[in-house]
Amino acid sequence: MKKKVTDNIIINELAEKICNHGLAVPAIFALEMIKYVSFLGSQLMVFFGPVVTVFVSGPQYYEIAELLEDRSNVELLLCLIEKIESKKNI
Known about the structure:
Blueprint (H helix, E strand, L loop, with lengths): L1 H19 L3 H11 L3 H10 L1 H4 L5 H10 L3 H18 L2
């Protein structure tokens, strides 16, 4: 249960960061495209991890890669991004 709560916190923070940087539309587009192959996408993140972690935080990057293995987490992230953006546009 504790793992699920931590996962939700990470997904909420990621959705907030995406929306704060104005990347909601490209993120929704990309996530919708990879939703059905999310496991492959997460494995690509792990593969490119050594290069990408030079520029971003390593442990959090791999936590997000692990979360994106599950399609339900991708769907949750999409819903949160859409919810945050709809509140911004009101």
